[in-house]
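Section 5.1 Outputs to date
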Amino acid sequence: MPFPDRRARLRLRRIVKLWTCLLILTLAVALTVGTRTATTVYAQPVAARTISAPVAAAINYALAQLGKPYQWGATGPGSFDCSGLTMRAYQAAGISIPRVSRDQHGAGRHVPLSQLIPGDLVFYTHAEESTIPAGIGHVAMYLGHGRLLEAAHRGVPIRIASLQRPDLVPVATRPASGSSGLPPVRYGQRGSAVSVVQARLAANGACLAVDGVFGPITRRALLGFQATHSLARDGIVGPHTWGALVSDGRMQSQPRRC
């Protein structure tokens, strides 16, 4: 094969240089687009997926007190009476309510029991005095599915129990203005609503951290819980799944560390 002349060599060098420039330009554009895409996918959803729910913060605080002793006049952190617990729970959510149960009855919008949502305060009167609010002697936090969380009385630890019992006041109080209860909780979210789900999954035997981040471990535990309880395995905590979470598992103690 004859050796190319000088003009052919120069033409070949120009072609190689042109292709090299085109390749570098293509790589630079690809890297720029990839960086912007990564920023869009990974940076932006962090804020969008964080759910803020004052009611969830109040419930999260109350759940963390399960198993602690009742003590009349106590407001924590080692023990509580009924209104001391609800006051501190809403304080943790940034909402101030009065100290005494009969005063807490007036600390928000009144709702009939047929419209109860998680976070509402429910009340009971003394057996010998049914006048409202003067006769109110007990308050508890409604969790849903006919269950509440309360500091009941001496000798009984803070617990989850049934709403239905004698002397239940027919009107509840909603301290969180505009609250619609617990929002649906799903994969990728973070916040107090996720923490309350994790706390109840742990109370039902799941091994996971209560860190407020709905990641793969929480999703796996939730899907297992839904399968065990014949619920839709959608990985979303709506009213039915939440109702099962508060109806089963540990009711007056914290889960063991795994």
